[in-house]
Design goal:
Blueprint: E1 13-20, H1 24-33, E2 42-47, E3 54-65, E4 70-76, H2 81-92, E5 95-102, H3 106-115, E6 124-132, E7 135-145, E8 155-161, H4 164-167, E9 179-189, H5 192-203, E10 208-209, E11 214-217, E12 222-227, H6 228-235, E13 245-253, H7 257-260, E14 266-268, E15 271-275, E16 284-289
Parallel strand pairs: 1-4, 5-8, 9-12, 13-16
Antiparallel strand pairs: 1-5, 2-3, 3-4, 6-7, 7-8, 9-13, 10-11, 11-12, 14-15, 15-16
Length: about 290
């Protein structure tokens, strides 16, 4: 059934972003200082292909669950292939290294992309324990990930949630800063046309020109592509010079007043730009009213 976080057939949404960070507690403090409500830490697991027993994937997270979409902050938990990939990316820099798009059937989309010649990793099934007000539940996901190294921005994937209620609990979706939705993820690219073409192939959506660069509009949310110099000017720093990378998150809020008084905030048109705290790595928030 379609909802804000459960796409209908053939829809694609911006499901969540992923920061790679060194310290989950430091990330929590930085997020709470901005007025976000943060979920408890949870380690991600997947079934062992031989025994079926749950084993660590290599990462765990805390999250900011928005009414529409969410923000994930990942840390290392185990020496696994995913854990080693995470450590290599974090060693280059902390910050945004993951973007996930929601679809109704990730397994079907995995088959379609594979048949179209897109290099994909094997389909995987992840889960993590979630505590609810009435007891424990398991949040489960089917994830189709592009091949390692095929997207210089980092880990790019499509997924299907199998228990929306376990993830989007009302107690976690209310925020002091009035956050409402993950509206867009920003890509800084030496060649925005090339970067947009790669994402367009994955998403099945054509990019459109904007005043600043390119944009792929989704059924909810968007991916925005800026030339590196324009992204650096907007964000206030070079995030990964010479490399296409995720540099910012556009988040809608009910009211900007909670954030506007922060000394590091700058207004760019109708957007309030705030740099990520050091614990979250390089990049910036772009807050707008809903």
């Amino acid at each position: 059934m379609k909802s804000a976080n459960q796409p209908a057939d053939r829809e694609v949404t911006l499901d969540h972003s992923g920061h790679f960070v060194a310290d989950a507690d430091a990330a929590r403090r930085a997020l709470e200082e901005l007025g976000f409500t943060v979920t408890p830490f949870s380690a991600q697991v997947q079934p062992d292909p031989e025994t079926g027993a749950e084993r660590l994937t290599g990462t765990g997270n805390v999250c900011v669950m928005l009414p529409a979409g969410y923000l994930e902050f990942l840390v290392h938990t185990a020496d696994t292939p995913i854990g080693r990939e995470f450590s290599a990316a974090l060693g280059r820099r902390a910050g945004l290294h993951l973007c996930a798009f929601g679809v109704a059937d990730a397994a079907a989309r995995h088959r379609e992309l594979t048949e179209a010649g897109v290099e994909m990793r094997p389909l995987v099934h992840f889960s993590r324990a979630v505590e609810t007000v009435v007891g424990h539940r398991t949040a489960a996901f089917t994830v189709a990930r592009m091949a390692a190294g095929s997207m210089p921005e980092g880990r790019v994937q499509v997924l299907t949630h199998h228990d929306e209620a376990a993830m989007w609990q009302p107690r976690w979706t209310r925020h002091a800063n009035g956050a409402q939705a993950l509206q867009a993820i920003l890509v800084s690219a030496p060649d925005p046309q090339e970067a947009a073409a790669r994402f367009a192939r994955l998403l099945g959506r054509a990019p459109e020109e904007t005043e600043a660069g390119l944009r792929i509009a989704l059924d909810r949310g968007a991916v925005e592509f800026l030339p590196e110099d324009a992204a650096t000017e907007l964000i206030g720093q070079a995030v990964d010079p010479g490399r296409s990378c995720f540099v910012g998150l556009r988040v809608t809020v009910a009211d900007l007043s909670f954030l506007r008084a922060r000394p590091e905030a700058k207004a760019v048109g109708d957007t309030l730009v705030l740099p990520f705290a050091p614990a979250l790595g390089r990049g910036a928030w772009l807050f707008q009213t809903a």
